[in-house]
């Protein structure tokens, strides 16, 4: 792994049990560190002029993220029921190494004064214990017991420019039992767990020894959160139950139920009212139970307690009720935070974070995506915003190359005279099932304003996500899986 080798060439010093990497040669180089490989961070990694940064500015681009991939989140709901295969919805960070250095690690804390980060490897320790017998020139040699572990030692990195793009976590509103017994849908691994669980429910319910009452409990699918993620998952699940599941488990499919809970009076709160009504009517027609103004009090294994309904048994519970702060953002005290959402750092219009004591922008530190709120404009926590902010920031960072002060000055990229970021709302899309979608362009920044529903919106939904898919590989895989699953059905194997 080149990144590790490069880091290891620097002199490593130990401070407070944390390994620090800043050897003489690498310290002479400027460092752009990007935290997070999501919609914000990955776009910067992709679009930053890596060769010129390295050759002309003598600068290392370093990515720190606990996953070595990017999640194409709008396709996660499709992956969770097998409409798409998992690898079609991720892009590897390693595509850009060795031009950049990448560490699969969490950033645990940031020392803004000394421009240092403490990171924790996100690679789980692997342990092999026991003896091995190896053949050595005809005679067997019994090797002594060996213990090999992955390294979980914290390490320190220094930065000259820092982009904080760590996103946000799932909101649970401290409802007891949610973290332990519900599924979230934020990462491709969540989608895989959900898909396995759905198939597990049907295989268990198919056992001859099980009672019908227990079958009904297992096949009761609950979703909490009527935002776009909850709605799209309900829609995808409905499609799955009414196509492949109905074909292969006809009796069980009739017992299966989908319930969508929300505390609000309507689903899809951010959408135009007419579109909310369209989605509501469609779900009702399709037999998806909409339980708005319902409050989940606590969750236990296989059941939850709802104020308005009492005990509700489920085989699968998917929880999607918005965002809570990333612990890294919570741990930061030196910067201003958004008092309203409490989940993000406040930035100025040029996406520089603001110092808590003086309110002045830090010229070398930027925040984008779900982890940031611009002080003058509250933007939605969407991939669209994160991606546009990343594009804006990449342009500014690339401009540094041309600037004579690129060598070491820290003041320029963040200069106050740079034009402020402007969000261009392209509209919102949501899949509502059965090859239908809704498209809200009532707040669009450019082009025709209006709304669209049904098949036309579905075509727009699919073409938008096909167009936005990043790599050529996935541009081939995504339509290929759509086509294959349409012809042959989704894969029902569980392993
Ligand atoms: C299922 C689903 C569907 C969605 N559909 C849409 C859609 O159709 N349209 C739309 O506009 N938006 C959509 N969104 C919202 C969109 O995905 C988010 O707004 C977007 O991902 C935010 O981008 P981000 O870069 O800020 O954070 P993220 O994409 O969440 O990325 C954060 C990154 O930071 C990493 N990270 C976390 N903590 C640390 C740490 N301590 N150190 C280093 N790295 C860290 C994470 O591993 C991750 O790589 C959807 C979201 C979900 C969950």
UniProtKB/TrEMBL annotation:
Domain External alternative NADH-ubiquinone oxidoreductase-like C-terminal: 427-491
Pfam families tied to this protein: NDH2_C, Pyr_redox_2
GO molecular function: NADH dehydrogenase activity
All residue ranges annotated as the FAD/NAD(P)-binding domain in the record: 31-390
GO cellular component: mitochondrion
InterPro entries: FAD/NAD-bd_sf (IPR036188), FAD/NAD-binding_dom (IPR023753), NDH-2 (IPR045024), NDH2-like_C (IPR054585)
Keyword DNA-binding included in the entry's annotation: no
Assigned keywords, A-Z: FAD, Flavoprotein, NAD, Oxidoreductase
The keyword tRNA processing is assigned to this record: no
Family: Belongs to the NADH dehydrogenase family.
Protein name as it appears in the record: FAD/NAD(P)-binding domain-containing protein
């Amino acid at each position: 792994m080149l990144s590790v080798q490069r880091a290891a060439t620097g002199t490593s010093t130990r401070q407070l049990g944390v390994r620090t990497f800043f050897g003489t040669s690498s310290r002479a180089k400027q460092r752009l560190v990007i935290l997070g490989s999501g919609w914000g961070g990955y776009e910067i990694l992709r679009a930053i002029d890596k060769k010129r940064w390295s050759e002309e500015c003598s600068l290392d681009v370093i990515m720190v993220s606990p996953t070595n991939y990017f999640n194409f989140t709008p396709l996660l709901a499709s992956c969770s029921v097998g409409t798409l295969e998992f690898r079609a919805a991720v892009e590897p960070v390693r595509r850009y190494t060795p031009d950049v250095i990448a560490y699969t690690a969490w950033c645990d804390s940031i020392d803004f004064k000394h421009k240092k980060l403490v990171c924790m490897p996100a690679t789980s320790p692997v342990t092999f214990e026991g003896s091995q017998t190896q053949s050595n020139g005809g005679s067997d040699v019994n090797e002594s017991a060996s213990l090999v572990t992955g390294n979980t030692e914290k390490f320190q990195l220094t930065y000259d420019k820092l982009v904080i793009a760590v996103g946000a976590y799932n909101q649970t509103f401290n409802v007891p039992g949610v973290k332990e017994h519900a599924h979230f849908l934020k990462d491709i691994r969540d989608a895989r767990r959900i898909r396995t669980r759905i198939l597990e429910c049907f295989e268990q319910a198919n056992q001859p020894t099980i009672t019908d009452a227990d079958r009904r409990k297992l096949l009761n699918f609950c979703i909490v959160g009527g935002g776009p993620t909850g709605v799209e998952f309900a829609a995808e699940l409905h499609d799955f139950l009414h196509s492949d599941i109905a074909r292969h488990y006809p009796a069980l499919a009739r017992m299966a139920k989908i319930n969508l809970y929300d505390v609000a009076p309507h689903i899809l709160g951010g959408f135009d009212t007419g579109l909310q009504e369209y989605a509501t009517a469609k779900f009702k027609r399709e037999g998806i139970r909409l339980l708005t103004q319902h409050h989940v009090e606590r969750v236990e294994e296989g059941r939850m307690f709802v104020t308005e309904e009492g005990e509700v048994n489920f085989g699968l519970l998917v929880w999607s009720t918005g965002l809570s702060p990333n612990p890294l953002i919570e741990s930061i005290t030196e910067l201003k935070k958004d008092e309203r959402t409490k989940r993000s750092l406040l930035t100025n219009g040029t996406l520089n974070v603001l110092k808590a004591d003086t309110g002045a922008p830090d010229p070398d530190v930027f925040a984008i995506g779900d982890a940031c709120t611009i002080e003058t404009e509250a933007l939605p926590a969407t991939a669209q915003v994160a991606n546009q902010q990343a594009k804006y920031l990449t342009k500014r960072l690339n401009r540094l190359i041309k600037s004579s002060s690129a060598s070491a000055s820290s003041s320029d990229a963040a200069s106050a005279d740079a034009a402020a970021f402007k969000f261009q709302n392209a509209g919102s899309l949501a899949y509502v099932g059965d090859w239908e979608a809704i498209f809200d362009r009532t707040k669009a920044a450019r082009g025709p304003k209006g709304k669209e529903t049904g098949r036309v919106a579905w075509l727009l939904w699919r073409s938008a996500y096909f167009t936005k898919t990043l790599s050529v590989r996935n541009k081939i895989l995504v339509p290929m899986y759509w086509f294959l699953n349409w012809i042959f059905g989704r894969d029902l194997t569980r392993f």
